[in-house]
Amino acid sequence: MLKRSRQTELLKILAALLAAAGNAHALEVGVGHAAPPLKPGAWIKGAPVDLEAAKGKNLVVVEFWATWCPPCRMSIPHLTELQKKYKEKGLLIVGVSNESADRVKPFVEAQGAAMDYIIAVDTAEQDVMRGYMEAFGITGIPWAFLIDKSGRIVWHGNPLDEAFGKAIDDVLADKYDIEAFKKADEPRMLEAKKLNLFRQYFDGVILKKKPAAELAAVGEAFITASKGDAMALNQFAWVVLQEVEPSNRDLPLALRAAQGAVEASEGTLDFIVDTYARALFDNGRVKEAVEQQKKAIDVCKDPKKIDEYRKRLERYEKTGSDA
């Protein structure tokens, strides 16, 4: 868990990402769901691919890569081989880079027949990257998404993994076990879901200045998805209490997140109990806030943090005595 100073820095980084990314992707994503639209900024090599038109005819691979990435370069011969092997069975491989066309085009031209599949570059807003990589919580490249002939994403992973070729074989042979892959992918997709909900909520209440009430369902969804995840719940609560404009803070929501964090950590982490005390105080439950702040002090081992907690305790106690 990040310290408080680092929490604020993290929020700034997330804010920058949100500002660049714009609205969260609207489609429901995940293995078994329809693939997001494939609308890059420019097609560099090969004919444009329309996923709607491909339904019933083509198995499509959308692979994310970059010219500067050594593993991506290693994957090029393999992808070319797969494209040739399965061309007659309707396979279309599309490599998408988030670099500029001016950088990608010369690289592709230099590869010639060694890079014999479709290449595109993303939009300035990174629409394709957002719809696939960001939505799935993937940060590393190369990464490939396999789309079956019905338009569903049925597999994703490193294209150098032997499981990639096997997935193509099994899908074409109509013996692919999508349910097994979905089950194995659930933990990672849950983390992606939490991150996307976190981004969506704070994009709304901080960057777009939307009333917190409009994002209440998103906040509740984050809390539900994060049940048992003390760090995630504590992070959410603290950002609401510390970074959102005071007039737009959903204090009951922050309190539920903070309480969930304490329950998940069994009250053994001082900074989580401290957040809970702050949430109680801001919700007007001063007596309980005092009790929890004392607990934060009791379980803390860091003298500097204890001094900080005691200052807050004094403020809570003073407010209680003035009431």
Describe this structure as you would to a colleague:
With 323 residues, this protein is an alpha/beta fold. The chain folds into two domains: 31-176, Glutaredoxin (3-Layer(aba) Sandwich), CATH 3.40.30.10; 187-322, Tetratricopeptide repeat domain (Serine Threonine Protein Phosphatase 5, Tetratricopeptide repeat, Alpha Horseshoe). 57% of the residues lie in helices and 10% in strands. It is built from 13 helices and six strands. The protein has a six-stranded mixed β-sheet, sandwiched between helices. Strand 2, helix 3 (70-86) and strand 3 (91-97) form a beta-alpha-beta unit. The two termini are 35 Å apart. The relative contact order is 0.11.
Please write out the topology.
Layout lengths: L3 H18 L20 E4 L5 H4 L4 E7 L4 H17 L4 E7 L3 H11 L6 E4 L5 H8 L8 E5 L5 E5 L4 H11 L5 H30 L8 H10 L4 H13 L8 H15 L4 H13 L3 H14 L3 H20 L1
Parallel strand pairs: 2-3, 3-4
Antiparallel strand pairs: 1-4, 2-5, 5-6
Helix pairs in contact: 1-7, 7-8, 8-10, 9-10, 9-11, 10-11, 11-12, 12-13
Question: Which properties best describe this structure?
Answer:
6-stranded mixed beta sheet; Serine Threonine Protein Phosphatase 5, Tetratricopeptide repeat; 57% helix; 13 helices; 323 residues; 10% strand; 6 strands; alpha/beta; 2 domains
